[in-house]
């Protein structure tokens, strides 16, 4: 077991490192940045949490004896009541939710068209560029709709972009440096979004309550059976959050308030 007592590791970079069950005592983490990390089961006591920003999947987060996750979700729903519609329970709800996604993305794309095309390849604060965000959503649709629900074992387009922390898998593209035009990516997006529209339009109570058939071969998601509702909720979640990230970054690109992550 490695022991770093008294060592100065300021500025160190940890990537794909297993720190499960590690112990941190009297450690200075000020200014640290965490991206794509698993903090499940972490216990923090005697901490100073000041001027901290956390974005991610938050459940059962207890702060000073209070589970704050329901409070956060309730506040987010209050700020934007449409957000609650991204958790539909029946076929009509999924059709409504996808209609909202289509409408909101139309507006976001129009905003992006108003920028210099080169800016759409620019990262804001180390996040994906606008083009990369669209490419990732193509991947999400390919994974959870075309592969999981429709049964295509290899639905990928060369422009598909998995999340950065996903381990490489044979046959799944990962060209983070590709620079397709906005129109090229939008053509791909329109095709994939039309596929989702066809699926949700055909939903019945029985099909929504059903499970997918495992596909053959390796890939993402794994060749297992998944609840259809779960697959569609994942896609809605991806679409909702990444559009919000895109809007945030378009604001920064318009004002020139961009900076690279450290």
From TrEMBL:
Q: Gene3D superfamilies attached here?
A: dinb family like domain, E3 ubiquitin-protein ligase SopA
Instruction: Specify the DinB-like domain's residue ranges.
Output: 102-245
State the protein's name: Pentapeptide repeat-containing protein
Which lineage is the organism of this entry classified under, starting from the top rank? Bacteria, Bacillati, Actinomycetota, Actinomycetes, Micromonosporales
Pfam families reported for this sequence: DinB_2, Pentapeptide
Q: Which species expresses this protein natively?
A: Micromonospora humi
């Amino acid at each position: 077991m490695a022991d770093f007592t008294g060592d100065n590791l300021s500025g160190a970079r940890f990537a794909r490192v297993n720190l499960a069950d590690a112990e941190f005592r009297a450690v200075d983490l000020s200014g640290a940045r965490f991206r794509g990390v698993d903090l499940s089961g972490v216990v923090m006591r005697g901490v100073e949490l000041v001027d901290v920003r956390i974005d991610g999947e938050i459940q059962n987060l207890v702060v000073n004896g209070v589970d704050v996750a329901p409070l956060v979700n309730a506040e987010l729903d209050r700020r934007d009541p449409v957000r609650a519609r991204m958790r539909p329970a029946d076929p009509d709800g999924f059709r409504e939710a996808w209609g909202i996604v289509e409408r909101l993305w139309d507006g976001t794309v129009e905003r992006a068209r108003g920028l210099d095309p080169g800016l759409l390849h620019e990262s804001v604060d180390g996040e994906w560029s606008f083009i990369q965000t669209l490419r990732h959503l193509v991947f999400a649709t390919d994974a959870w709709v075309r592969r999981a629900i429709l049964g295509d074992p290899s639905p990928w387009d060369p422009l598909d972009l998995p999340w950065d922390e996903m381990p490489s898998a044979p046959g799944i593209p990962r060209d983070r440096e590709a620079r397709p035009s906005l129109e090229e990516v939008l053509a791909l997006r329109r095709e994939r979004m039309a596929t989702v529209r066809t699926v949700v339009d055909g939903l019945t109570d029985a099909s929504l309550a059903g499970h997918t058939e495992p596909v053959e071969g390796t890939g993402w998601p794994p060749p297992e059976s998944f609840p259809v509702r779960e697959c569609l909720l994942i896609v809605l979640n991806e679409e909702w959050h990444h559009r919000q990230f895109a809007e945030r970054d378009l604001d920064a690109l318009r004002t020139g308030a961009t900076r690279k992550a450290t």
